[in-house]
């Protein structure tokens, strides 16, 4: 195995969680790869790629006391990892509308049929209690072209979902 | 002509300020040809700056003419280039031959006025916009030791930079 692990921590948010976890890992001799922390509602969530020669059991010994003290749920999976060629997104999809069930399902199902591979997705609920709105942002690779995705999503506009499909032009210089 | 080695971040040499070209001689022409050949050898680069190949003089090449629906001035060799006017701004995604395997969002002026010399030392002057203006700003940064990494903005800002609002 490559000694890489996917570490997931979820719980109630409070200041200092990332610092505490990162310090514990650093002091135990682990290295971080890619990481992503998001606040989802009031919930702290983080996923971290961690390289550790101490093995899963060793990692657990370091992190269990930390997770307990911060009241977080801890999950560790062994993964494959290496320096890789990261796919470059070429399409961005912005979606918003009155919040109702099925927006993510409909948009992503139609986009997947049209050749979309999602690299990054984020959605939030905004607006007011009485009139919540749903905002969804997706970036990905359009294997069959941006226009194919645009055409596939067009019918959803009739359901009151505002959809904007735009190419991402990456400048390499 | 030769394909030159590209300096890669965190090579400190990318951080230095390049000096103006003073001699428009045969050596300059040969170096420009090598710079262009190196750009073409890279993965789809629309521009390259001399310091990226450890040549610390103010020379860049920009060519966005191969892109669909992109206003451009063709293949440009720009010596001692200077931007004298900036207008508007927009967010766009950038990557760099000197920073492999990473792209990020950068704010650039939407329109610029550019003055430069051509490879023989004759004055040039352009009004540029959009992708070409972005490419020129990216390359000119290299001449001052700056990388797009120095100008990154959040990946999650797109929604607030809708083109429709302009």
Structure, explained:
The complex is a heterodimer of chains A (173) and B (166). With 173 residues, chain A is of the alpha+beta class. Helices cover 27% and strands 44% of the residues of chain A. In chain A, the strands form 2 sheets. Chain A has a 4-stranded antiparallel β-sheet, covered by helices on one side. Chain A has a 4-stranded antiparallel β-sheet with strand order 6-7-5-8, covered by helices on one side. In chain A, helix 1 (17-27) runs antiparallel to helix 2. Chain A is globular, with a radius of gyration of 20 Å. The model of chain A has no long low-confidence stretch (mean pLDDT 95). Chain B is of the alpha+beta class and 166 residues long. In chain B, 18% of the residues lie in helices and 34% in strands. In chain B, strands 1, 2, 3, 4, 5 and 6 form a 6-stranded antiparallel β-sheet that branches. Chain B is globular. Chains A and B meet through strand 7 and strand 9 of A and strand 1, strand 3, strand 4 and helix 2 of B.
> Largest sheet of chain B, if any?
6 strands, antiparallel
- The residue ranges of chain A in which pLDDT falls below 50 over 5 or more consecutive positions are none
Low-confidence stretches of chain B: 159-166
Secondary structural class of chain A: alpha+beta
| Strand runs of chain B, count | 6
Largest interface, by Cβ-Cβ below 8 angstroms: which chains and how many residues each?
A-B, 20 and 29 residues
- CATH secondary-structure class of the largest domain in chain A: Alpha Beta
What is the top-level CATH class of chain B? Alpha Beta
Structural class of chain B: alpha+beta
In short:
The complex is a heterodimer of chains A (173) and B (166). Chain A has four helices and nine strands.
């Amino acid at each position: 195995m490559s000694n890489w692990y996917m570490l997931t921590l979820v719980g109630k948010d409070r200041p200092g969680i990332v610092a505490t976890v990162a310090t514990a890992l650093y002091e135990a001799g682990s290295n971080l790869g890619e990481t992503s922390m998001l606040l989802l509602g009031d919930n702290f969530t983080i996923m971290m790629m961690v390289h550790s020669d101490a093995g899963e059991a060793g990692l657990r010994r370091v992190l269990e006391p930390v997770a307990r003290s911060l009241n977080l749920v801890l999950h560790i999976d062994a993964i494959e990892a290496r320096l890789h060629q990261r796919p470059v997104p070429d399409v961005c999809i912005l979606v918003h509308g009155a919040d109702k069930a099925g927006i993510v399902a409909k948009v992503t199902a139609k986009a997947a049929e049209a050749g979309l591979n999602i690299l990054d997705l984020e959605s939030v609920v905004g607006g007011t209690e009485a009139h919540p709105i749903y905002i969804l942002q997706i970036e990905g690779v359009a294997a069959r072209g941006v226009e194919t995705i645009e055409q596939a999503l067009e019918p959803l506009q009739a359901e009151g979902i505002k959809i904007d499909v735009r190419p991402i032009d990456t400048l390499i210089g | 002509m030769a394909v030159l080695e590209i300096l890669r971040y965190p090579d400190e040499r990318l951080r230095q300020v390049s000096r103006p070209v003073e001699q428009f001689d045969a050596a300059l022409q040969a170096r420009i040809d090598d710079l262009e050949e190196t750009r073409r050898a890279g993965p789809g680069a629309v521009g390259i700056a001399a310091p990226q190949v450890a040549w610390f003089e103010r020379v860049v090449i920009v060519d966005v003419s191969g892109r669909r629906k992109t206003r451009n001035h063709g293949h440009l060799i720009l010596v001692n280039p200077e931007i004298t006017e900036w207008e508007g701004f927009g967010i766009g995604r950038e990557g760099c031959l000197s920073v492999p395997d990473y792209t990020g969002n950068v704010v650039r002026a939407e329109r610029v006025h550019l003055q430069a010399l051509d490879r023989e030392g004759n004055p040039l002057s352009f009004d540029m916009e959009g992708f070409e203006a972005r490419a020129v700003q990216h390359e000119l940064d290299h001449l001052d030791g700056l990388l797009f990494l120095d100008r990154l903005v959040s990946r999650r800002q797109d929604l607030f930079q809708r083109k429709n609002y302009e």
